[in-house]
Design a protein that fits this description.
The complex is a heterodimer of chains A (111) and B (115). Chain A is mainly β and 111 residues long. Helices cover 0% and strands 50% of the residues of chain A. Chain A is built from no helices and eleven strands. Chain A has strands spanning 4-7, 10-13, 19-25, 31-37, 43-51, 54-57, 64-66, 76-78, 87-94, 101-102, 106-110. In chain A, the strands form two sheets. In chain A, strands 2, 4, 5, 6, 9, 10 and 11 form a seven-stranded mixed β-sheet that branches. In chain A, strands 1-3-8-7 form a four-stranded antiparallel β-sheet, with no helix packed on it. Chain B is mostly beta strands. Chain B is built from no helices and twelve strands. In chain B, strands 2, 5, 6, 10, 11 and 12 form a six-stranded mixed β-sheet that branches. Chain B has a four-stranded antiparallel β-sheet with strand order 3-9-8-7, with no helix packed on it. A two-stranded antiparallel ribbon of chain B has the order 1-4. In chain B, a hairpin with a 2-residue loop joins strand 7 (56-59) and strand 8. Classes of the chains: A mainly beta (111), B mainly beta (115).
């Protein structure tokens, strides 16, 4: 089993460009999450999903969108990239109130 | 709202030293508590967890006890190794009135162990 996979690993965007960060899981977990990690700030929740077709905002949703059409996939869309979105993005999954399993991350730089 | 406060880093130790990283929390209800570890260039991995008061989580020589009376979940290891160098995150999870089980993280503590 691959667990949680994320693509790409690295990306450089110009201000105003758009992109989609991909996240896929083969653990059959209902819950999926997107976090961003900024230096010295821990992880902040961007969006989460409790199942296919259901998504909700986390702490820092502005500038991002998500969709969850299948159990396996939970892409994160950045529209009109800004330097403030330079960060490391982690996708995670869980099955209810148990531990979350994290992907390897996507390092995004917006210049 | 829920919050986690953990010891500011960085922490630098010599190999075989004793490690404590303090973590205290504020939460409504009865949270589950976790320690995650992040090795350089990698995602977070669960290190240990405790789901109710007085539970002790343990893994790879690390331990933490869920103390409800002091709202704490301090991480300890008796003898650290160079391979323990990483960032450690304390986190809590609550079912905040619905079906969402979100994690609230502390800011992380960078540990460096020198040979």
């Amino acid at each position: 089993n691959a667990g949680v996979t994320q693509t790409p690993k690295f990306r450089i965007l110009k201000i105003g460009q758009s992109m989609t960060l991909q996240c896929a899981q083969d653990m059959n977990h209902n819950y999926m999450y997107w976090y961003r990690q900024d230096p010295g700030m821990g992880l902040k929740l961007i969006y989460y999903s409790v199942g296919a077709g259901i998504t909700d905002k986390g702490e820092v949703p502005n500038g991002y969108n998500v969709s969850r059409s299948t159990t396996e996939d939970f892409p994160l869309r950045l529209e009109l990239a800004a330097p403030s979105q330079t960060s490391v993005y982690f996708c995670a999954t869980s099955q209810g109130a148990y531990e979350q399993y994290f992907g390897p991350g996507t390092r995004l730089t917006v210049t | 709202g829920d919050s986690v406060t953990q010891m500011e880093g960085p922490v630098t130790l010599s190999e075989e030293a004793f490690l404590t990283i303090n973590c205290t929390y504020t939460a409504t209800g009865y949270p589950s508590l976790f320690w995650y570890v992040q090795y350089p260039g990698e995602g977070l991995q669960l290190l240990l967890k405790a789901t109710k008061a007085d539970d002790k989580g343990s893994n790879k020589g690390f331990e933490a006890t869920y103390r409800k009376e002091t709202t704490s979940f301090h991480l300890e290891k008796g003898s650290v190794q160079v391979s323990d160098s990483a960032v450690y995150f304390c986190a809590l999870s609550t079912n905040s009135g619905g079906s969402n089980y979100k994690l609230t993280f502390g800011k992380g503590t960078l540990l460096t162990v020198n040979p």
